[in-house]
Fold this sequence. Notes:
By secondary structure, the chain is α/β, with parallel strands linked by helices. Helix content is 39%, strand content 15%.
Amino acid sequence: MRPYELSLTAAADAIRARRLSPVELVDSVLDRIAQVDPGLGAYVTVTAERARQAAREAEREAAAGRFRGPLHGIPMGLKDLIDVAGVATTASSRVRADHRADADSTVAARLAAAGAVLVGKTHTHEFAYGLTTPQTHNAWDRGRVAGGSSGGSAVAVAAGAATFALGTDTGGSIRVPAALNGVVGLKPTYGLVPRHGVTSLAWSLDHVGPVTRTVEDAALVLSALAGHDPRDPASLSVPAADYRPSPGTSLAGLRVGVPRNHYFDRVDPQVEAAVRRAVERLESLGARLVEVEIPMTRYIQATQWGLMVPEATAYHERTLRAVPDLYAADVRVLLEAGALMPAADYLRAQRSRTLMRRAWARLLDEVDAIAAPTVPVAAVPAGQESITWPDGTAESVSDAYVRLSAPANITGIPSLSVPVGRDAAGMPVGMQLIGRPLGEAVLLRIGHAYEQTEPARELAAA
C-alpha cells in the first residue's frame, strides 16, 4: 500500500512506530495531488514547499522521540474559507482574489500545534453558498457533481490527495459532499469547534468539522479541534476530550431511531435500500430500533432559508454593493434576494428554530441517535438542475441535497455521515447519524461499529 492510501489512523501508527516518515507520507500525497488534481479540481492552492518544510520538521521531532499526537506529520487540506497565516483565503471567489490571511484561524492553529501538515486549500462553492462546488469534479465520476460546499475537501480525501481535510457545514456542506464521494463527514455540535478566522456564510448555522476516510479518523481530528475559544461568541466551554471510539462492535443498550416520515420521503430507492440495510446491520450489532416521528417537517425548508439568506446577505453587504459583478451569478442572486427579505420573516425563522430545537430535544429523549439517509439521491450529473420524483414533484438539486441535512444545522445538534454502499452506477451512498447536543461520542461509536463490519473502503481511482 502506498503512503497516500493510508487512513489517518494507519498513517499515525506507522509514523509512531517509525515504519513511515512524515516526509515520505507528505511527498506521497503531494505526488498524488500532482497526478489527480488537474482532472478533479479539488485544490485552489497547493502549498507544496511549505508542506515539505513542515514534514522535515515533523521528521526531526519524530527522530528525537517527540510526537505531538496522532496528527503528527499527517497531510491535510483546509477548505478555502479557513485562514492560514500568509496563505490566500479566496473562498473560491473573485471577490477575494487578492486576500491573504494575516493570522491562523483557531482550527488551523490547533491542527498545526498537533503536528498536522497543510498541503493545500480546497475549493468551496463560492463563499460556501451552494451544494455542488461546480469547479470540482466527483472523485468517482468526473461527469458528476462533487457536492458542496466542501466539495474540494471531500474529493481530496476520497482520491488520496489529502489524508484528512476540514470543511464547513451551514446546511449540509460537510455531509453532502462526504456522502456523494464515499467518505466520512462530521458536523459537530454548534459551538464545539471554534470558527474564529473562518469566513462565515450564516453565523447562526455555521459549523467546522472533519472530512476523513474512517470514523476513527474523524474522532482523532475532532479531539484536536474541540474546545472553547473566547474569540468565537458561540464557542462552548467544554472540557477537552478524546473522542476515539472504543474497540469492538457491540451496540447493546443503544436505541436508534428510524424515521417514519421526512427522511425516507422522496428518496431514490437505491439510496433507501442501502441505508435500510445499514440500519439492519446496526440492529444485528445490538442496537434497538425505534420508529420515530420527525417534528415540524413542513417548516424545515422555510426555517433554513429564512435564517441563512438574510445572514449571508448581511455578511456580504459591503462587497455586494461595491463589486457585485465579481460574484458568480447563482450566489449574487441569493445575496440580492436576502436584501429583499423582511425582518419579520427572519424573526419568524428564529422563532421556528426555537420551537424546532425543543421538539428535537424531546425526540432525542426517546432515542440515543437517529439513522437516516444523508442525501436523497447520489451524485447527479454536472449541470443537472432539478430532480423529478415518481410522484411528479420537481425539486431543485440544491433543495434536494439540503433537505435531509438542514435539521441538524437549524437545531445545532451533531450529525455524522458514513458511507454505506453504492448505487447501480457505482456512486456512493451515505447514512446520516444524528444525535443529542455534545453527543459526538455516541455517533462515533455507532459509525465505528458499523464500519468494522464492512470491508475496508478503497480510494477513488480519480
